Amino acid sequence: MIDKIKTWIKAMRPEQWVKNIVVLAAHVFARADPSQEHAAGISALFDILLAAVVFCLVSSSIYLFNDAHDAAADGAHPVKRKRPVAAGVIAVPAADACSIFIAVFSLVVTGLFMPAGFGAIIVAYLAMQILYTVLLKRIPYVDVFVISCGFVLRAVAGAVALDVRISQWLLLCTFLLSLFLALCKRRHEKVILTE
Length: 195
Prior knowledge:
This protein is 71% helix and 0% strand. By secondary structure, it is an all-alpha fold.
């Protein structure tokens, strides 16, 4: 039983949750702005942490969907074949079902505790990532722009969750840094496949 739980946790890729730290950026910058005092209370801290947790869950939902969709191709990849779904440890239908459950659960939590604008961002993020999985990641350059947009949505979501202003410079820096990292990742993947 414990092994199964560990397998499912591995499939959800919790090591990737660190990407969602971008959600917290709006809180950090708003606390330094005297005109946005409402971002300094316990309630604001709860809201921003819940926003980050929701993004972690939604990200895991997408990872499961992606692994289920690409199970056959991942099975032939030197690194991705070790993922639970690609390795056949978790069945594709089970991964799909869990993906849907986590996504719906995240949307319910969002609807109950978060502003409507945050919910709209979560829906947009889910739609973008699903489209990325089934189509966009196979289009050069478009794929890395979608990844960067995902980080920008995280940053905007944090601001919407707290109802604070967000710097355009923060959004620009988030986009450019994530674009740079995405391009580096694609280059690394090509190097691995050509070795």
